[in-house]
Amino acid sequence: MKNSGQLSLNLGNGSRSRTPPPPGQEPANGLYFAILPDQETAARSFELAGTFHRQYSFSTKPRRKDLFHITLYQMQIDPARELPEDVAFAAMEAASTIRKRSFPVLFDRAVSFGNRDNRPLVLWNKDGNAELKALHRELDEAVELTGFKRGREKLVEPHMTLLYRGHVVPDILLEEPVSWTARDFVLINSLYGKATHDHLCYWTLHD
Predict the structure, then answer these.
(1) Beta bridge mates, 202
(2) pTM of the model
(3) Which of 50, 77, 144, 178 is a plausible cystine mate for 27, CB 3.0–4.6 Å?
(4) Residue 14, in any domain of the structure
(5) pLDDT (tens digit, 9 = 90+) per residue, 34-44?
(6) Are 158 and 132 contacting, i.e. CB atoms less than 8 angstroms apart?
(7) Spans of biased composition, class Polar residues (predicted)?
């Protein structure tokens, strides 16, 4: 495990209260495990997002390069029952049990995801990126052992979002796939509405 120097875990968006918020209040942040692209891949993905933004007249701008990621597993936070810090430490405990080798990630197309008025444009692989799904399952099982699992985890469809609130476009086959080798995964604290991702800890995928 490698930490980012942020293990004080002030996850309450400024609040240091040890009392959970009132019932019904939404959490101010989300905690999830993710795979990050390397710098070269992030730069290329940003260029692709800009090209598609112009080509298909999307109204929203592409995501920043530092926000690109593949969500592996979302930690469910119930504000009425637990503090984000407790969930974060449970997530770290679960991740510390993972023993997995590095593996290739490959996206061969850009597609429209979602429904209604939010149709994010994402990078996706029709063949599913089996290693990403396998890591998701291992994390799901590890989190269950900590007691912080909230019901059945939904099926995961590995993807990397280029921009949000787009519109439906035909699948875009890439002339050259977006690919890199995943060598670690990270626990991210995402502050809702702030476009801010704090990287709390990394875990190495060994060669």
Answers:
(1) 2, 186
(2) 0.85
(3) 77
(4) no
(5) 999 999 999 99
(6) yes
(7) 1-18
* DSSP string for the chain: -EE-S-TT---BTTB--SSPPPTTPPPSEEEEEEE---HHHHHHHHHHHHHHHHHTT-SSPPPPGGG--EEEEEEP--TTT--HHHHHHHHHHHHTT---B-EEEEEEEEEE-SBTTB--EEEE-TT--HHHHHHHHHHHHHHHHHT---SPPPPP--EEEEESS------EEEEEEEEEEE-EEEEEEEETTTTEEEEEEEEE-B-
Question: Is 99 a domain residue?
Answer: yes
Query: Residue 7: inside a domain, yes or no?
Result: no
28 close to 13: Cβ distance less than 8 angstroms? yes
The CATH number of whichever domain residue 145 belongs to comes to 3.90.1140.10
Quick: pLDDT tens for 100-139.
Answer: 999 999 999 999 987 767 789 999 999 889 999 999 999 9
CA distances from 147 to 11, 169, 182 (A): 20, 41, 28
Q: Which of 30, 90, 54, 87 is nearest to 163 (CA)?
A: 54
Domain that holds residue 137: 29-204
